[in-house]
Request: fold
Amino acid sequence: RFIQVGNSFLLSEATQALTAGAFRTYMCMCMESGGRRDFQFPQKTAHKYGIADKTLRRHVDELVEKGFIVAYRNANLRKPNDYSFGMRWKPELKAPLKTL
Reply:
C-alpha cells in the first residue's frame, strides 16, 4: 500500500505536538485503513507493526484526546474496536467532541 501525507498535516502544530509513537501509530492506521475513513486496527495488526498492547492503548488514547481519531470500543462485543479518522486536530475545527 501507499499513503500520501499532505503538507498541511505534517506542518500543523497539532501533528507536531504528537509523540513520535502516536504519530507512527497514526501512520500505521492510515496504511491499514486502505483509504477508508472508518477502519479497525486490532492488536494483531498492531503487533505486525511492532506496537505492543499497552503502547497501542496509550497511543490510541492520545490520538483520541487530540482529535485525530474517534474510537468506538467493542470490548463487550468481544470484537476489535472500530475507529474513524477525526478532524478535530485542525485549528478551525476544534469544537468539543460529541459523545455518541
